[in-house]
Specification:
Layout (H helix, E strand, L loop, with lengths): L1 H28 L17 H9 L5 H19 L2 E4 L1 H16 L6 H7 L6 E5 L26 H8 L3 E6 L11 E2 L3 E2 L1 E2 L2 E5 L1 H15 L1
Parallel strand pairs: 2-3
Antiparallel strand pairs: 1-3, 4-5, 6-7
Length: 214
């Protein structure tokens, strides 16, 4: 019992220290930048909801992909989250999805729901996961010119489910740390508070979980 109390006090002290350091960093960095509000309601749907609307011809894959491309272009200068993109290729793949649905050989809604549950839906992945003909740096300067020749298994499975790779997002070096920061692409800012990186909230969440489970 005494050990738990000591750990609880330690967690609280550590949380206060982390909050204090974060506030100091935020003060030095200046006021947070505001993000453009989301006007395109397509961006508010879940992946499964988008897939349902696409296979039911309520939305086109091209429109969905275009919406995400435009949003990335809006927030990238503020957050620095994307390190490589394949927008043109993604749009071509989206158009093929739409053409298939319009063709005489269009698969049934039931078939798509079972075999291609993410048909026409765009996604991003971290820059430590291989996408064919794209860079894979894992945040390392020494790998800045590394281009992979084939998809990682997880990307292959996503494509098999009908999903469309859109871009690579920033990581820490070798994806070893909580924040997305490296010497190659810099720091990805927290979308909820651009004066911070993502690690602040991860650390606090972990400490709060430990407090309740200790």
């Amino acid at each position: 019992m005494q050990t738990r109390q000591i750990l609880s006090v330690f967690h609280r002290l550590l949380e206060l220290i982390v909050r204090g350091i974060s506030l100091l960093i935020a003060f030095v960095r200046g006021p947070a930048e505001s993000q453009p509000p989301i006007k395109d309601l397509t961006l508010l749907h879940s992946a499964t909801a988008l897939a349902l609307k696409i296979r039911n011809r309520q939305l086109t894959s091209e429109d969905v992909v275009s919406s995400y491309i435009e949003r990335i272009k809006e927030i990238q200068p503020i957050l620095n989250c994307v390190v490589a993109e394949r927008f043109e290729e993604a749009l071509k793949e989206a158009r093929k999805c739409d053409e298939l649905l319009k063709s005489q050989d269009a698969p049934s809604v039931e078939f798509l729901a079972k075999e291609k549950p993410l048909f026409g839906v765009p996604f991003t992945t971290k820059d430590c996961i291989a996408i064919e003909n794209m860079q894979q740096t894992a945040g390392l300067v020494i790998r800045k010119n590394t281009v992979v020749e084939k998809d990682a298994d997880v990307i292959r499975l996503m494509r098999s489910a009908g999903a469309i790779p859109l871009a690579l997002t920033n990581v820490s070096e070798l994806a070893m740390w909580w924040e997305s920061s490296n010497c190659l692409f810099g720091v990805t800012k927290n979308p909820y508070n651009t004066r911070c990186d993502m690690s602040r909230y991860v650390i606090i969440d972990i400490m709060q979980c430990n407090q309740f489970t200790s």
